[in-house]
Amino acid sequence: MKFLDEARVYVRSGDGGAGCVSFRREKYVEFGGPDGGDGGRGGDVIAEAVDGLNTLIDFRYRQHFKAKNGRPGMGRQRTGAGGASAVLKVPVGTEILDDDSDAVIADLTVVGEEVLLLKGGDGGRGNTHFKSSTNRAPRRADPGRPGQEMRIRLRLKLIADAGLVGLPNAGKSTFLAATSRARPKIADYPFTTLHPQLGVVYAEEEEFVLADIPGLIEGAHEGHGLGDRFLGHIERCGVLLHLVDGTQEDVAAAYRTVRRELEAYGGGLAAKPEIVGLNKCDALDEARIAERRAALEAETGAKVHVLSGVSKRGVDAVLSALLAEIRRARTDSPSRNAGADVSSGADWTP
Ligand SMILES: Nc1nc2c(ncn2[C@@H]2O[C@H](COP(=O)(O)OP(=O)(O)OP(=O)(O)O)[C@@H](O)[C@H]2O)c(=O)[nH]1
Ligand SMILES: [Mg+2]
Question: Whose CA is nearest to atom 12 of ligand 1?
Answer without folding.
Answer: 169
